[in-house]
Structure formats: structure tokens, C-alpha cells
Amino acid sequence: MAEQRNQTPAGDNTQWTTIIRPRTGWFDVDLEELWRYRDLIVMFVKRNFTVLYKQTILGPAWIILNPLITTVIFNVVFGGMANIGTAPTVSTDSRRTIEVNLFDFSGDLYGRRIEVEFIDRMRDERRFPNLEALTAQLRADLLQARRLLGG
User: Fold this and answer.
1) In contact, 134 and 128? CB cutoff 8 Å
2) Residues 104-123: pLDDT tens digits?
3) Distance in angstroms (rounded) separating the CA atoms of residues 113 and 124
4) How many CA atoms does the CB half-sphere of 82 hold within 13 Å?
5) Residue burial 22-47, b: 16+ Cβ < 10 Å; e: rest
6) Which of 1, 28, 102, 134 could connect to 128 by a Cys-Cys bridge, CB 3.0–4.6 Å?
7) How many CB atoms lie within 10 A of CB 145?
């Protein structure tokens, strides 16, 4: 809703100012106006849909197939192993954490939410005398985890 005011500053000619204010709150939808412009809305939806999926052979099916394919790829290609515990070899902190190592993945997932499914428990957490011993055990764990996951 727009209202116009006549302002007369000292020594100036008359000026008109338009003030635009909302009719009501955020969630007030004028259904009559939407119905009046339904043809325009349908045209915009069709145009956006066509532009979005014009380059794909699968078209609208891609909406469903894309997340399914991504899930399958991450489940088949990116197996991994996890540690739940305190990492006693490298830290004196007693807080428990979950550290997941994905096989054959080189991206950065810190701060991102991921789902982890546990298949089998391999060994208890223990403190190693040095980082070389920890690295050797992690290599052995990697081979065992790949065998468990069928890769």
C-alpha cells in the first residue's frame, strides 16, 4: 500500500514522497490475486522447470535419481573405518570423539554432516608407543576393513 505525503521544507518548492508499507504481515497471501495471475505463474513454473532440466536426457526423473545415485556411489565406492574413543596415542584429552576415515576420498568433510553405518567391530582402542606403531596398525586395520567391506 503506498501513500503520498506533501512535504514542504523551508524555502523549497512542494515535493511529493512515496512511502511504501506492507498491507499486513508476512504470511498474508492474497489468493484472489494469485488466481488472477495464475496463467503467469504457470508460465514461470514451466519455464523454470524446462530451463533446469532441458540439458538432461532423464528430465524430471533426475530429481529422484540424483540422490539415489549419490547414495549408492558413497556406499559402494567410499567404504571406510572409524575410531570411537579418545585417541590415546596422540592426545591426552579424555573426551570421546568419532573419527571416520573414508577410503579413496580426498575431499574435506570437516564441519559437514555425514551418516556412518557400522558393519563390524575390529579391535579395542589402545595406546601405541609411538606414531610409527600406530601407523602400522592403521595399515593393518585398513586391509582388514577392506576385506570386511568386500573391497
Assistant:
1) yes
2) 778 888 888 877 878 888 88
3) 26
4) 17
5) eeeeeeeeeeeeeeeeeeeeeeeeee
6) 134
7) 20
